[in-house]
């Protein structure tokens, strides 16, 4: 048996492949550093030998265009993508399919390439196939079963839009599962559609939670629907913000309703300002009344103190008895004189003075 202790020499083909790989990696390094011209030169050098990755990157550069280095050229981009696609490079198959569909309108050729790429696990290709089979767009075949299969392939690989479309297409509990999976990742469209499904099932509060999440991700229809909910709850200021956002994003319903809502909010603000003014005035009246009551109480107390002081200068006996008689029915109100008590005191003092004058006249 031959010994394997020594490394076998590389074949010319292997050396050529390694050299092309080295050129490709160097070109990528130049591109990362922003040295686009050097990268383009090296990609072109490797692409001349049909290196798939170099052809694909060169196709991207022609598709996008780089000022001062390469002009945008869709025909040249498709040529580069074609070279890599023929070597079963899925990214190039997908990129070429998109150009054929969107630029050239060649749907049949695009479908073949989408299928080739999807069969190799290309997620976006699978999603595009799902869209075409669901809608029959670009004169493509309408096939719900195929749409479900391709959407599922993309959704299982984490494609959020595929999960949303699959959820809507399936409907029911199966559809909710896919919508919930996409909503968990924060997809606004998933949250919006899930909110509708939950509301239809009668789970209104849970549906509102997902509607809130959808609006937080700036989903236009969600913002409009949530604005309507806020209006029903009387939260007009918050409703106005959501409605205006939806209107600014071009939602025709929001454009129409935002004008009405603005008038309602303006009128509501005027009413609230008037109510606040009335409350302030009522509070001021209440404070004024309290001040008047306190002042009256103080005047009464001062009058009582003055009368008691004046009465304290006379001689006992009958005067004290009369004083007691004057207060007889108000013993429990001492310290809290009423107007009747004061009048009695005044009458007692007058009677005492009259009696004193009479006695003085009698002695004469």
Q: What is this entry, summarized?
A:
This protein is mainly α and 364 residues long. 78% of the residues lie in helices and 0% in strands.
3D structure, described in words:
By secondary structure, the chain is mainly α. It has a domain of 78 residues. Helices cover 78% and strands 0% of the residues. The protein is built from 17 helices and no strands. Helix 2 packs across helix 3 and helix 12 crosses helix 13. 32% of the residues are buried. The N terminus is likely disordered. Belongs to the sel-1 family. Pfam families: Sel1. InterPro entries: Sel1-like, Sel1_AlgK, TPR-like_helical_dom_sf.
Mean pLDDT, to the nearest integer, reads 85
Q: Would you report the number of β strands?
A: 0
Amount of helix: over 70%
Beta content comes to under 5%
Number of helices: 17
Q: What is the first-to-last residue Cα distance? A: 171 Å
| Element-level helix/strand string | HHHHHHHHHHHHHHHHH
Q: Report the principal-axis shape.
A: elongated
Q: Uncertain runs with pLDDT below 50, 5 residues or more?
A: 1-5, 314-333
Structural class: mainly alpha
Computed over alpha carbons, the radius of gyration is: 47 Å
Largest sheet: none
């Amino acid at each position: 048996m031959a010994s394997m202790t020594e490394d076998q020499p590389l074949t010319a083909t292997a050396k050529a492949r390694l050299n092309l790989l080295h050129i490709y990696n160097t070109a990528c390094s130049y591109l990362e550093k922003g040295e686009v011209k050097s990268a383009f030169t090296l990609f072109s050098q490797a692409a001349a030998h049909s290196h798939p990755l170099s052809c694909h990157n060169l196709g991207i550069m022609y598709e996008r265009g780089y000022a001062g280095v390469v002009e945008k050229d869709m025909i040249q981009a498709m040529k580069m993508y074609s070279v890599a696609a023929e070597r079963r490079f899925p990214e190039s198959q997908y990129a070429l399919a998109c150009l054929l569909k969107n630029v050239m309108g060649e749907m049949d050729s695009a479908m073949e390439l989408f299928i080739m790429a999807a069969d190799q696990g290309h997620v976006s290709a699978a999603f595009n196939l799902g869209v075409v089979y669901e809608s029959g767009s670009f004169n493509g075949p309408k096939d719900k079963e195929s749409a479900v299969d391709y959407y599922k392939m993309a959704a299982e690989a984490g494609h959020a839009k595929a999960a949303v479309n699959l959820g809507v297409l399936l409907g029911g509990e199966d559809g909710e599962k896919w919508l919930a999976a996409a909503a968990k990742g924060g997809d606004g469209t998933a949250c919006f559609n899930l909110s509708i499904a939950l509301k239809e099932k009668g789970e209104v509060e849970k549906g509102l939670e997902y509607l809130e999440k959808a609006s937080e991700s700036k989903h236009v229809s969600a913002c409009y629907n949530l604005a309507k909910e806020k209006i029903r709850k009387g939260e007009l200021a918050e409703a106005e913000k959501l409605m205006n956002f939806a209107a600014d994003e071009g939602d025709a319903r929001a454009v129409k309703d935002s004008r009405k809502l603005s008038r309602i909010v303006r009128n509501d603000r005027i009413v609230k300002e008037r109510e606040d003014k009335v409350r302030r005035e009522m509070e001021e009246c209440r404070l004024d009344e309290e001040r008047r009551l306190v002042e009256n109480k103080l005047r009464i107390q001062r009058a009582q103190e003055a009368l008691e002081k004046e009465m304290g200068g006379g001689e006992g006996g009958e005067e004290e008895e009369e004083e007691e008689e004057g207060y007889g029915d108000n013993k429990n109100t001492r310290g809290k004189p009423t107007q009747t008590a004061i009048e009695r005191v005044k009458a007692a003092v007058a009677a005492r003075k009259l009696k004193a004058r009479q006695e003085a006249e009698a002695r004469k």
